[in-house]
Design goal:
This is Tetratricopeptide TPR_1 repeat-containing protein. By secondary structure, this protein is an all-alpha fold. Helix content is 85%, strand content 0%. The longest helix is centred in the last third of the chain and has 56 residues, at 119-174.
Length: 175
């Protein structure tokens, strides 16, 4: 299942929505209660400017998994686009309650407060969004550095083996 999700995600990153949609629908044939697949189908629908269909997918995702923060935030975006800022705000607040370390709903709330000219709350939520984004970026850098550090011994061994193979081949050709 993870392989299918990764494959679909790869298509989404490349803007290949039809291929991604096909895979997410395949996932739903295997697991009709897969909230992530419904959420991603909603994202595809948004990108294709079909907000009504996206809303249906996000609501379904939340019915299946009320703790899926991204689906709540995405549903909030639909309400925001339709000008229903109160419902959008409720969705963003729910997303924050589910995953307080996700910077996206904080940023979305900041936008709502900016539109309503509540500058204090705008600044508060915008700062929180920046803080969390910076923290995630630093965590990603640390994870990447650790991952790269783990590769170094293997790369050294591989390099050594390649050098030895080349030397062996050179010596073999001289004979």
């Amino acid at each position: 299942m993870d392989d299918l999700i990764n494959k679909a995600e790869h298509h989404m990153e490349r803007g290949e929505y039809q291929q991604a949609r096909k895979i997410y629908n395949e996932i739903l044939l295997i697991d009709p209660n897969n909230a992530i697949a419904y959420n991603k189908l909603g994202v595809i629908s948004v990108r294709e400017e079909n907000l009504e269909q996206a809303k249906i997918y996000f609501i379904k995702a939340l019915e299946l998994n009320p703790k899926l923060s991204s689906a709540s935030s995405n549903l909030g975006n639909i309400y925001f686009e339709k000008g229903n800022f109160e419902k959008a705000k409720d969705c963003y607040e729910k997303a924050i309650a589910i995953d307080p370390d996700n910077p996206v709903p904080y940023n979305n709330l900041a936008v709502i407060y900016k539109k309503s000219k509540d500058i204090d709350k705008f600044v508060k939520f915008y700062k929180k969004s920046i803080e969390l984004s910076t923290h995630k970026l630093n965590d990603t850098k640390i994870h990447f550095k650790k991952k790269e550090a783990k590769k170094l011994p293997y790369m050294a061994i591989l390099g050594f083996l390649i050098v030895m193979l080349i030397l062996y081949l050179l010596i073999s050709f001289k004979r």
